[in-house]
Structure formats: C-alpha cells, structure tokens
Amino acid sequence: MAACGRVSPAHALATVWLRELGAAKRAWNERSRGPSSAPPWARFDEANPPRFLCDPSLGGLARWLRAAGYEARLAPGVPGHRLPDEALRRGLVLLTSEAEVLDRRIVADGSLVVAWVPSALTMAEQLHLAAVELGLTLRESRCMACGGRLVPTAKEAVRSRIPPRTALWQDDYFVCAECDRLFWRGTHWERIAATLRRTVAA
Ligand SMILES: [Zn+2]
What we know:
By secondary structure, this protein is α/β, with parallel strands linked by helices. The protein has helices spanning 9-31, 40-43, 59-67, 83-90, 105-108, 123-134, 155-158, 164-169, 187-199, and strands at 52-54, 72-74, 93-96, 114-116, 150-153, 173-176, 182-184.
C-alpha cells in the first residue's frame, strides 16, 4: 500500500492492523469464548471503562480520549522503558507508539493491556484506532486539560468569567471539578464533538 504512494507506511500499517482487528473480532464473536482469555476490546464495558496511560508522543491523543469521556494520563517523570511497569502497577491500559513494548512478557501473558498507536497518524486516526482496538464508545466528556469531571454550573455563579459576547447566547456552563476551567458548548466544543462522533462509536 505504501509503495503505491498513496499513503505513508504508518497509515498502511494502521489500515492492515484495523483489518486484522476486524477479522479477529468476528472470529472471537463466533467462538464466544469465556472472559478469562478475553482480548482487549472484550475486557471493558460501560460500567468498567478502561483508564489510560499514554506515552509522551501521544499527549494529543490523551486530550481527545478525555473529550470522549475517558481518564487518560501522561507520566512525565517516568522514563519510557518503565511505562509498561508503571501502567501495570496503576491498573491502566498503556497506549504507546513503541511497537517493541508489545514483545514484553507482561503483555504476552495478558497482565498488561497495551494498544499500539503510531504517532505518525493524524489525531482522528489515532483515536479511531484506539477506539476500535479497545471497543470504546462515547461517554460524558471530561476536561481535555486534566481529565477531571465536568460539573454543570449555574450561569450566575460563573458570570464574571464568561466572555460578554458568549453570555448573550449561551446559558449552559460546566466547570472542571479538578482544575476549575470553565466550558460551554461553543463552536470549538461542537467541532470536537463532530470529530468524536466520526471516530468513536456512539
Ligand atoms: Zn480540568
């Protein structure tokens, strides 16, 4: 595919990977095996969503996963080769652009769930790949900056922080429970929501 010149090697790899995932899911569904050998996409559900640790090259993906409603962290002080152990210790799913992580014993024996996401893909492609691999569906958006819960807030309580023009037409506001940022469903929010609907199943 890449030699045909239409796509980069990273795009070609991701496309083949998605195709393989589709085939693996169909085979899994037909066999309907028990949860003990469950692949990544069958381990999580609405009540038990995955929480993520992203490697430093996937900081943008972490922000988008938060917008899709998932907890996604970076570990700035942890060297790259320690990330798999860190994710295992904290019970997190590791998202990494380093394919060699997949060879680690803790991945092969199923104790650590890892999804490989090439950093050369566009943001939407990275999100789509992670969503397919882990069976993600859209949840209530979290703060893109820190991952905190967004709490609906009365307009009057935050009026001094609302740009005057926005206050004229927008009545619904949210404040992040962690970092106190103010959010509203403006054009930026709508663009983000449209991308999420295209890339992550509802
Ligand atoms: Zn926040």
